[in-house]
Structures are given as C-alpha cells and as structure tokens.
Design goal:
Length: 143
C-alpha cells in the first residue's frame, strides 16, 4: 500500500519513538537494522524526515535521532505525505495522469470514498499511539 520510502519512514519513526521514551537516541545503523532496511536508504529517509521537521537529530558521540514531546502527536498521514506527497490521497486508482470527477477513470467514483477513508485513518493515527500499542504488544512490526 505504501511506497518503500514511506514504509521504512513509518517504521523508523516508530522505532525512534520507542527509544525516545527512554530518553535514548538511535543511530542510522541501529535504526536500519531494527526495521530491516538498507542503511544508505534509511539515512536518506531520516535526513528527509529531519529536513521536514518530523524527527530530531543530534550530532556527536552522544548523538542520534530522537523525538520530543510534541513529535509523538505526528500522524502517520503526515509522514506519508512528507515522503511520498499526496498521491495516495488524491491519485488515480489506475495511475492515469488525468482523472477527475468531470473526466473519471472507470474506478474513480468508487475510490473517492476509499481514498478519504485512508486519509482519515492515517491522519488519526499518531506516532505516540502506535508506539504505545507496540510497547503493550497489542501490535507488532516483526514476526
């Protein structure tokens, strides 16, 4: 459903959120290993998330990536939009470059509600809530 960039970005944010609750910071290598992602790709994603002010970073021997209090309220939807743009929320179901209510693809009208439901769900889902569910083992990221 998500691009690999968004998938790894969400997983990285969740991993960093769990580490940040204990006032710890995580390095790129640690994050990449934890989310089963290539290290250079993870570094690029983390750099973009940092540039978009969605994750914090500190350089130096005690440095790494971390979240602050307000960051736990960031929605999954905001992460997806920061990394992938709004294509998931507005794009054509069949990938047509021109698809609208006045010139719809065969699936346009059916997907209007689906896209809105996806947008609503992802914008309601917060990093802090998802992280808490992981800590309580109500959800999981690895088998």
């Amino acid at each position: 459903m998500f691009s690999k960039t968004a998938e790894y970005g969400i997983k990285a944010m969740l991993y960093v959120a769990r580490k940040s609750k204990g006032d710890a910071r995580a390095g790129v290598k640690e994050i990449a290993a934890a989310i089963d992602a290539p290290m250079p790709f993870t570094a690029k994603i983390l750099q973009e998330l940092s540039r978009m002010d969605l994750i914090r970073s500190l350089k130096g021997p005690n440095g790494g990536f971390y979240l602050e209090g307000r960051d736990f309220r960031i929605s999954i939807g905001r992460i997806v939009q920061a990394l992938d743009g709004d294509k998931l929320f507005t794009g054509c179901a069949l990938g047509l470059s021109e698809c609208s209510a006045s010139r719809p693809c065969p699936l346009h009208h059916e997907f209007v509600k689906i896209r809105q439901d996806i947008s609503d769900t992802l914008n309601r889902s917060r990093i802090g809530d998802c992280s808490a569910a992981l800590e309580q083992e109500l959800t999981f990221l690895k088998h």
